[in-house]
Amino acid sequence: MQTRRILTQAVLISALIILLLLSLVPFVMMLVLSLKSNAQIFTHFWEPPKPARWDFYAKAYSALGGYIVNTAYVAIMTVGGVLVLASLAGYTFARHRFPGRELLYYAILSLLMIPGILTLIPTFMMVKGMQLPAFVFAGHTWGPFAVMNTRWALILPYIAGGQVFGILLCRGFFQSLPEELFEAARLDGASEWDIYRRIALPLSHPILATIAIMTSLSVYNDYIWPLIAISDNTIQTFSVGVTKFAGEFNLDYGPTLAGYVLGSIPLLILFAFGMRYFIQGITSGALKG
Amino acid sequence: MTLRTLWRSRYSYLFLVPTFLFLGLFNYVPAFSGLYHAFTEWETTGTARMNGLENFRRMAEDQFLRLSLSNQFWLLSASLVKTLVVPLIVAEMLFHLRSGRLQHVLRTLFLTPMIVPGMVGILLWGFIYDPNIGLLNNALTAIGLGSWNRAWLGDWHTALPAVIGIGFPWAGGLALLLYLAGLMALPLDILAASSVDGASFWQRFWSIDLPLLRGQMKTIAVLTIIGTLQDFGSLLVLTGGGPGLATHVPALHMYFQAFRFGHYGYASAIGFVLFLVTLTFTIANMRFVTATEEMG
User: Fold this and answer.
1) pLDDT at residue B1, as a whole number
2) Which residues on chain A are in Cβ contact (under 8 Å) with B168?
3) CA nearest neighbour of B227 among B260, B259, B249
């Protein structure tokens, strides 16, 4: 019995490790080939890089660094917007009682059933004609600003879409807090804004971290929307930029792969800090609905 | 409900104003606009004009669309196997590891491919299938099967299977996480009872694990269906739907109709049909989940 158990475990572990190695093949290939010149790749495909061409990374950075910074900027702005809107609305739905609460909540839930493919064209046509209103500041009139082909064409729709899942998560979280907490504050005469700002928000850091990570990930990985909404290459995001880059450097494989590695670094940092929150977000059960 | 109660709730409404402002502008209006424009003739230049069911009649006669349906069927079936079956096997194997530490380490390692941006993952597979320096051709040559070498994504016979092969062995990702969380949450007393009864692994798997993981399976199935029907980005980048129509799918057809040819009305109609299909699956899933929650 004992030996059989050990044998079973050995088989399980080796099967898992084989699967794992197979899963990692493309990424190992990426790392190894990113340091090899075309000549090395063509003639010695299976050999380690000799010499390792670290200069490819500098080349890739000069071509792709801008896209990565652009995406980071868009992601940060989006996450900021989503966190404010989702926590405020989630808190309101969880802790306030007001006429129409259920109706409004279902109006938000129903959006989960609207696929992006239905709204892609109308959103595009709308954003194309959209202008942020002019305002007067320091004696000058600024704007109106066209939204299309600016970062706002990404940030605004991303905030709108990203908050839906965030509201679900926040509502669930705020519902789990004890009512006494809020009651005591109300008796002390705290305003509704104060209760949200000073009691609810500080407690919600873990759930906000989850939302921040899920949102950043979806912004970083989105391809179609920036492809059609942004034509100015200087503000383009990484997902689109990298396909252009792969096309330009088509015949220079090493730098192309070095670019892929560079593009993975922001997500590596994100996961290094937030893997736990990410897993919580996936398994929270909110995905089930 | 009086004005007084509404006034007393003014802060609640005030807190929801920003949310609904964004949703109205970027979600509700486009959704209704998409539904409406499915019934219009709407080209790049002119304004939209109602044309009844003309777009749908055109869809029925669209050869490209018809041919794309069978590709979509194969891609969808393959995606379901890839996300429903393989991660379940891996989750079961991980769950039966006796060392908790090893389990944790391996689970984390299986998730590492997620660190790579989605587009990079797709481009890497383009690299694997590359006719000149691709990993696949090199590997075949190395084991003496060099005669099989080909442009995997450029060959009419292999393009669709190659697209399906992306992500092999499809072990990690979101589905693995959901399954593993589901297995960890199985009631301990049931597990203990089954081991006392001397149930074999397969008995336990069929009579306990599978029924209790039904919720997860439905979730994964619906997310996969919605994701696959909508995902045309990877095809756009890797094959553009080709060679010929070998990897053409309806969503890609919609994209081309709108953003290459400027037939926004017709494209909206294709989007409308895709929406109806995903809606059907989502509703089926929600009913199922509610039913399971009532059971448990």
Assistant:
1) 61
2) 22
3) B249
Mean of all residue pLDDT scores within chain B: 88
Nearest CA in chain A to B219: A288
Q: Say how many CB pairs under 8 Å bridge A and B.
A: 251
Among A121, A264, A283, the residue with its CB nearest the CB of B178 is A283
Domain A54-283 bears CATH identifier 3.40.50.300: no
Instruction: Please give the pLDDT value at position A246.
Output: 79
Instruction: Give yes or no for residue B204 having a pLDDT over 90.
Output: no
Enumerate the residues of chain A whose CB falls inside 8 A of the CB of residue B3.
none
Identify whether the C-beta of residue B33 lies closer than 8 Å to the C-beta of residue B16: no
- pLDDT category at B2 given cuts 50, 70, 90 is confident
Is the pTM for the entire model greater than 0.80? Answer: yes
ipTM of this model?
Answer: 0.89
d(C-alpha B152, C-alpha B130), whole Å: 7
Please report the pLDDT score of residue B290 as a whole number.
54
B56-295 carries CATH number 3.40.50.10380: no
Q: What is the DSSP string of A245-267?
A: HHHHTTT-HHHHHHHHHHHHHHH
Classify residue A116 as exposed, middle or buried by CB count within 10 Å of its CB (0-12, 13-18, 19+). middle
CB-CB neighbors (< 8 A) of A271 in chain B: 114-115
| Cis peptide bond N-terminal to B243, omega within 30 | yes
Q: Does A132 touch chain B (CB under 8 A)?
A: no
Joined together, the tokens standing for residue A262 give 């560079």
Verify cis geometry, omega within 30 degrees of 0, for the bond prior to A206: no
Which stretches in chain A have pLDDT values below 50? Answer: 286, 288-289
Closest C-alpha among A131, A165, A150, A161 to residue A237: A150
CB-count exposure of residue A211 (10 Å: 0-12, 13-18, 19+): buried
Does residue B295 have a pLDDT over 50?
A: no
Cβ atoms of B188 and B208 within 8 Å: the answer is: no
B195 phi and psi angles, rounded to 5 deg: -75, -30
Q: Could you read off the pLDDT of B128-153 as tens digits, one per residue? A: 999 988 899 999 999 999 889 999 99
